[in-house]
């Protein structure tokens, strides 16, 4: 089995609970798997309560409640209450769609610590087009209610070629809504984002211009709003330290109970992911093949294996290595030292060409119908 | 960001200070983030409870640890805490 016997295993700190794949929105950059429509069965409330307890016992302290749209789960307050009792810091990652003031109060009373609301664009037409449903006014209203009820308010705006020119307006909107935190989440290309990459990947010039604006605002807003800028790694020459190294910090549980070292790992063939219905969280974390496979450094191939930076980025992203090279054990091709770096450059060029071509393929929206097509193909 | 000596210091309502058994240390929790605290940092922050000003905190720590001359270190740390939004100042009344 890959991975040295002597690798010491750290405790998980972050549990991402993907409660459901159901979602009223259809964002084309969603990182959910393309075939999510084949996995619509969900864990029961009892299962989730047990998973929360077991992961907390392992040392997890940050809890992400996500999906799909977590608000579609009727038992959300029950899960939140249990999480609070266990001592988690709970983060609701939501589109805000359908989040009423009554629900906000109910969740607050249950002990929810923070609500992160997504907005797709500061411009209503574009927001509603990207979300696939009329949602702009509702999201802004929810953002205001979140603040009103004393939560730290985190605004998440996913950035891509369709909205990157609105960077200034995005920041102004965050200021207007009095966000405590603003996440400028440059799209990561997995799942649906991967399919739509030609339409979503900005050019280097677009990135640099947007980043300059964001950094200026970030400086001015120090002490008032924390601005997180998620780096677009295609334009870097070293990969991100994905998941802080697999099996060290993050644990994702998919809606049907599949335990994943990262939320995109479901789409990796050859990775045998365990299920919380069959194994305890402790067993999964300590003993499963999937979680041990990329611990330590023994699994690495060159150039990572003997690279002096290997403990900095752990060879980058396994999913990206698979998507570009067909082998999840390769170096993340984003790295300038990867023999496959040219594949990233080809994709950058293709996106630039697609951006200049008005006849380019339209966005594929994330919904059950499209998902079933992907599953069938 | 210098600390106003007359301002009451309070821990941020949008952060949480918590003892983590699994890590055997205090941590600060906030949206999607965690800061691990040294013992001394945790001691200082636990005194930022909305009733004390900086001189109170220094005096209390000097008393507790039977030492003097903590003012500079405590103030330096609290400036970091203020900058990071872990504590807030309110005018002393």
Short characterization:
Chain A is an alpha/beta fold and 377 residues long. Chain A is built from 15 helices and nine strands. Chain A is globular and about 55 Å long.
Averaged pLDDT of chain B, please?
A: 93
- Oligomeric state of the chains present here: heterodimer
State the distance separating the first and last CA atoms of chain A.
33 Å
Interface with most residues: A-B, 22 and 17 residues
> What characterizes the major β-sheet of chain A?
9 strands, mixed
Structural class of chain B: alpha+beta
Let me know the number of strands of chain B.
Answer: 6
Total beta strands of chain A: 9
Compute the CA-based radius of gyration of chain A: 20 Å
Strands of the biggest beta sheet of chain B: in what spatial order?
Answer: 5-1-6
The span between the termini of chain B is 22 Å
Cα-atom radius of gyration of chain B: 13 Å
| H and E string of chain A | EHEHEHEHHEHEHHHEEEHHHHHH
Total number of helices of chain B: 3
**Content of β-strand of chain B:** 25-35%
* pLDDT < 50 stretches of chain B: none
Percent range for β-strand residues of chain A: 5-15%
Percentage of residues in helical conformation of chain B: 25-40%
Low-pLDDT runs of chain A: none
Helix content of chain A: 25-40%
Query: Order of strands in the sheet with the most strands of chain A?
Result: 7-6-5-4-3-2-1-8-9
Please write out the topology.
The complex is a heterodimer of chains A (377) and B (93).
Chain A: E1 14-18, H1 45-58, E2 62-66, H2 76-86, E3 89-94, H3 101-110, E4 114-118, H4 124-131, H5 136-148, E5 153-159, H6 167-176, E6 181-186, H7 191-195, H8 197-200, H9 204-220, E7 226-230, E8 250-253, E9 259-260, H10 281-287, H11 289-292, H12 310-313, H13 318-325, H14 341-356, H15 368-376
Parallel strand pairs in A: 1-2, 1-8, 2-3, 3-4, 4-5, 5-6, 6-7
Antiparallel strand pairs in A: 8-9
Chain B: E1 7-11, E2 16-20, E3 25-30, E4 33-36, H1 39-46, E5 49-53, H2 54-64, H3 71-83, E6 87-91
């Amino acid at each position: 089995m890959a991975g040295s016997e002597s690798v010491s295993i750290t405790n998980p700190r972050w549990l991402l609970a993907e409660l459901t794949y159901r979602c009223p929105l259809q964002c084309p950059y969603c990182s959910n798997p393309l075939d999510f429509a084949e996995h619509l069965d969900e864990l029961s409330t009892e299962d989730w309560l047990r998973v929360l307890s077991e992961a907390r016992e392992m040392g997890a302290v940050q809890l992400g409640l996500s999906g799909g749209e977590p608000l579609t789960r009727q038992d959300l307050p029950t899960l939140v209450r249990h999480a609070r009792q266990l001592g988690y810091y709970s983060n609701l990652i939501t589109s805000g769609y359908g989040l009423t003031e009554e629900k906000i109060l109910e969740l607050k009373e249950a002990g929810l610590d923070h609500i992160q609301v997504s907005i797709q664009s500061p411009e209503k037409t574009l927001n509603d087009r990207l979300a696939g449903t009329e949602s702009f006014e509702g999201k802004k209203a929810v953002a205001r209610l979140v603040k009103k009820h004393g939560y730290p308010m985190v605004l998440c705006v996913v950035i891509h070629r369709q909205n990157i020119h609105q960077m200034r307006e995005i920041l102004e909107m965050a200021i207007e809504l009095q966000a405590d935190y603003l996440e400028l989440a440059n799209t990561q290309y997995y799942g649906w984002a991967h399919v739509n990459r030609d339409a979503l990947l900005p050019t280097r010039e677009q990135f640099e211009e947007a980043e300059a604006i964001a950094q200026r605002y970030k400086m001015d807003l120090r002490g008032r709003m924390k601005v997180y800028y998620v780096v677009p790694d295609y334009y870097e020459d070293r990969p991100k330290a994905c998941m802080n190294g697999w099996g060290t910090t993050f644990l994702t549980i998919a809606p049907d109970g599949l335990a994943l070292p990262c939320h995109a790992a479901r789409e990796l063939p050859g990775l045998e992911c365990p299920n919380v219905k069959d194994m305890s969280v402790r067993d999964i974390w300590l003993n499963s093949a999937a979680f041990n496979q990329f611990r330590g450094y023994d699994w690495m191939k060159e150039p990572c294996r003997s690279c002096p930076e290997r403990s900095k980025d752990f060879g980058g992203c396994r999913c990206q290595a698979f998507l570009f090279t067909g082998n999840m054990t390769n170096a993340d091709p984003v790295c300038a030292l990867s023999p496959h770096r040219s594949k990233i450059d080809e994709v950058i060029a293709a996106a630039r060409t697609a951006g200049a071509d008005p006849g380019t393929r339209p966005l594929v929206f994330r919904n059950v119908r499209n998902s079933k097509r992907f599953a069938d193909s | 960001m210098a600390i106003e000596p007359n301002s009451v210091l309070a821990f941020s309502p949008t952060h949480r200070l918590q003892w983590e058994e699994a890590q055997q240390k205090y941590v600060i929790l906030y949206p999607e983030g965690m800061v691990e605290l040294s013992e001394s940092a945790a001691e200082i922050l636990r005194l930022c409870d909305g009733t004390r000003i900086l001189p109170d905190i220094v005096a209390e720590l000097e008393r507790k640890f039977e030492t003097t001359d903590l003012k500079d270190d405590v103030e330096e740390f609290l400036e970091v805490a203020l900058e990071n939004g872990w504590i807030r100042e309110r005018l002393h009344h």
